[in-house]
Amino acid sequence: MVAVLPGLYVGGAESCSSPEALAAAGVVAVLTVDAEEAPLPAAPGLRALHVRARDEPGADLLSRLDDCAAFIGAARAAGGAALVRCAAGVSRSAAVVTAYLMKSEGLRWEEAYAAVKAAKPDVEVNPGFEGQLKLYEAMGCVVDTSSALYKRYRLQIVTERYPELQDLPREVFAVDPTSICQTPSMEVLYRCRKCRRSLFRSSSILSHTEGSGPTAFVHKRITDSTQLRDHGRDKCTSYFIEPVQWMEPVLLGVMEGQLLCPKCTSKLGSFSWRGEQCSCGRWVTPAFQIHKSRVDEVKTLPVCDFQAAQT
C-alpha cells in the first residue's frame, strides 16, 4: 500500500490483508478494480466499491472513472483515506488513481501518471488504459456520454466485445427522431430528401479531423487531375453518425452494407464496422455514413423569433 497523496493509496491485492494496516493508514474506503470482487477484512465502517475489469487493452475503465473519482473524493472529504487496489497494483489501480489526479488536481494525463509512477515506480498501465486516460483528458475529465469522442469510443468497444454483432446494447443506438414529438430548438434535424422522413439529429453526427485530401487516395491510383482537385467543394461529402434505432435490423450480424431510407428505401449511404474512408481522406472506424446530397437540414425556428417575424 503506497501513498500517492494524503488520503490516497494504491496497491495490489495483498495491500488489503491487514485490518491493522488499513486502520493505521486511516483507510475508510477500498476501491477494487478486478475481474472478480475480492473479500475485504472485517473492519467496522469500511466502505467498498468494485469495478469489474480485466487488465486488457479492450477493458472499459473510462465509463467508470467519474464513479471512482467520486468514491475516492468522498472518503478524503470526510477526513479518511481511500485505497485503490487491483491484482498486482500495476495497471488497473494505477490508471484509476491517475484519472483521479487528473480530475482533482487539474493535471494533464502525463503529469498525473508521472506522479503515480514517482510514488510507485513499478506501475505500468496497459496501452488501452493509456488511450482511455487521454480521451478522459480530451473530455475535460468528465465522462460525457453525449460527446462525439465518447460515442466513437463506445462504438469501438462494442465492435470488440460483440464480434458477431448480435444483441448489441440498446444505448449504442440513438433515438429515432420519429419517436419523439419535438426536436430540441438548438438541434438540426436531417430528413430524407426524397420522402422527408426524419433520419437523425445533429447531436448524432460524429465529427472527425479532416484528412489529407487527394493524397490519401494515391493507393487507389487516381491519375485524373480533375479528381485530384476539390475545386473549393466541401471535402467531407458525407455525415458520419452514430447508429440510429431505425438502422438496427440492417446492422445486426452484418459487417458492412448499404443504408436505405426506412420509409422510401432510397439509398442514403453505407456502413462498415471495419471502417470507411471519408472523401476528405480520413479513415473512420466504425463508419455509418449518410451522403449529404441525400438529406436536407431542417432547423427549428425559436418561438420568440417566430413571434418577432410576425410583428
- Give the helix tally: 8
**pLDDT average, as an integer?**
88
Q: How large is the share of residues in beta strands?
A: 15-25%
Please report the total strand number as a whole number. 14
Radius of gyration: 24 Å
Largest sheet properties: 5 strands, mixed
- The order of strands across the largest sheet is 1-2-5-3-4
End-to-end CA span: 71 Å
Shape: elongated
Helix and strand sequence: EEHEEHEHHHHEEEHEEEEEEH
Work out the helicity level: 25-40%
Provide an overview of this structure:
With 311 residues, this protein is of the alpha+beta class. It is elongated and about 70 Å long. The protein has helices spanning 19-25, 65-77, 92-105, 109-119, 127-138, 148-161, 248-251, 303-310, and strands at residues 2-5, 8-11, 27-34, 47-52, 81-85, 188-192, 198-201, 238-240, 256-260, 267-272, 276-277, 283-284, 287-291, 295-299. The protein contains eight helices and 14 strands. The strands form four sheets. A five-stranded mixed sheet has the order 1-2-5-3-4. The model is unreliable at 221-228 and 303-311 (pLDDT under 50).
Q: Can you lay out the helices and strands and say which pair or pack?
A:
Layout: E1 2-5, E2 8-11, H1 19-25, E3 27-34, E4 47-52, H2 65-77, E5 81-85, H3 92-105, H4 109-119, H5 127-138, H6 148-161, E6 188-192, E7 198-201, E8 238-240, H7 248-251, E9 256-260, E10 267-272, E11 276-277, E12 283-284, E13 287-291, E14 295-299, H8 303-310
Parallel strand pairs: 2-5, 3-4, 3-5
Antiparallel strand pairs: 1-2, 6-7, 6-14, 8-13, 9-10, 10-13, 11-12
Helix pairs in contact: 2-3, 3-4, 3-5
